[in-house]
C-alpha cells in the first residue's frame, strides 16, 4: 500500500497541491501547513473533504498518523483559522478595505509613463500627423481664352470661352474648367449644386476636365438648329 498521498491544501489565502507521508502525525502535518498557509499551528483546524466538498473527517487528534484517518489521493485538506485576528488570514484576498487609487484626467494627462504619453510621443492614433491634402495640379489655361470642347457627335464644334479654372465642391479632387458656350448647348449657368463659379446665361455653361478641351483661336461658329433637330 502506498505511503504517500497527493492532496489539495486550501486556506483563506492559499490553494496548492501537496504530497504527504501517511506515517506523519497530525501535529507534524500542522507544522508543515503553517509554512504553506501562514496559519499558526495552535490556530489550525483541519478537515478532510471529498471531491464534492463534503467533509469526511476532521484531524482532531494531533498524535494520530494521517493514515489513521483514511486519507487518500486527491482529497482536500481544508485548513481553517480559528483565530484570524492574530494571524491576519483572509486579508490578502479581501480587497474591500483596500484604498482605491484614482487619478483625475488632468493628472493622468501630465504623466510621462502612461499609454497616453506613449501615443503622443510616437504620434499614434489621434495624435498622428494628419495627412496633407493632395496639391492641386497646375493647369496652364488662361481665363478668357477661346476653346473647343471635344464632342462625340460628328461635325459638332462645341466652342466657347474659358470662364473658370480650379477645384470645385461638386468633385472631390482635381481641376475643372468652366466654359461659357457660344450656343445654348450647356447644362448650367455657371453654378452647380448652389455654388457659383462664374456667370453666364442658362444652358450656356459647362464644366469639363482640362484634357477634354483645346485652347486656340476658335472663331464663333453658329449652330443651325433646324425644326427636325428641335
UniProtKB/TrEMBL annotation:
Domain Ubiquitin-like: 5-86
Zinc in keyword set: no
Top-level division of the source organism's lineage: Eukaryota
Subcellular location: Cytoplasm
Gene3D superfamilies assigned to the protein according to its UniProt record, in alphabetical order: CAP Gly-rich-like domain, Phosphatidylinositol 3-kinase Catalytic Subunit, Chain A, domain 1
Domain CAP-Gly residues, every copy: 174-209
Family classification: Belongs to the TBCB family.
Stated name of the protein: CAP-Gly domain-containing protein
Organism: Pisolithus microcarpus 441
